[in-house]
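Whiteboard transcription, Tuesday session. T.W. wrote the structure tokens on the left side:
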């Protein structure tokens, strides 16, 4: 699905979203659900300090003037791995963007991620994975870390990781695997109007809170995260 197709199906009544070199900034009417702030990354660009701070600023500036949900549309590369970005503190900029989205979500601005293309690593963590509900469209290709990079970190061979990926979604990239782990909450049907599916989601939006561990447990894709998080919470509140 192209960005134009996605926006036309998602916002049939039009929108005011500018695409500035792959950076999406704007808003769109949602009928009875009001108006959404829309930000995102498109065209497979890498997310660097310049892009992250602009997206963060747009989220923060909207908190005092708007009331609707925040939709984050994603088709990106990974984070920009340039010397300039690293020296400027790329990880802090990405963390700041994620925290802006989480802060907005906890303060009356529910966040919805829509993943329609590729994304990976820091760009994935700071945008789509920082939203309350992440929706995946057919053809999306998310990866927290590709297998060659994972091999460097874990010191396991590619062959071993490929074998593990066949039976353990945690080791495997791809939309279905990340849905099984609970990272992707919903898979939308590209043959149905996205506006209708968004309307249904907004009418049944879960409360703020991270349920990915519970989803991963229920879908048998990540069996330890939910119970461990629950046990940590029990111990924390018991003191």
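and on the right, the sequence the group agreed on:
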């Amino acid at each position: 699905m192209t960005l134009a197709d996605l926006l036309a199906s998602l916002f049939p009544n039009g929108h005011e979203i500018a695409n500035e070199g792959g950076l999406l900034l704007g808003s769109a009417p949602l009928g009875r659900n009001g108006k959404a702030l829309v930000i995102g990354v498109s065209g497979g660009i890498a997310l660097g300090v310049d892009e992250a701070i602009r997206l963060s600023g747009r989220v923060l500036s909207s908190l005092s003037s708007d009331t609707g949900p925040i939709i984050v549309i994603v088709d990106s590369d990974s984070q920009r791995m340039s010397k300039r970005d690293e020296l400027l503190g790329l990880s802090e900029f990405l963390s700041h963007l994620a925290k802006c989205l989480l802060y907005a979500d906890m303060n009356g601005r529910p966040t919805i991620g829509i993943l329609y293309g590729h994304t990976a690593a820091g760009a994935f963590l700071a945008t789509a994975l920082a939203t309350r509900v992440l929706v995946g469209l057919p053809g999306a290709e998310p990866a927290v870390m590709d297998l060659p990079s994972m091999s460097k970190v874990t010191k396991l061979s590619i062959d071993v990781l490929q074998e593990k990926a066949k039976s353990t979604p945690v080791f495997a990239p791809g939309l279905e695997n990340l849905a099984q782990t609970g990272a992707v909450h919903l898979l939308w049907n590209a043959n149905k109007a996205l506006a209708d599916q968004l309307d249904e989601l907004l009418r049944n939006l879960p409360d703020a809170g991270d349920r990915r561990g519970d989803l991963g447990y229920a879908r048998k894709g990540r069996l330890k995260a939910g119970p461990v998080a629950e046990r940590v919470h029990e111990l924390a509140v018991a003191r």
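Someone added at the bottom: The chain has a mean pLDDT of 92.
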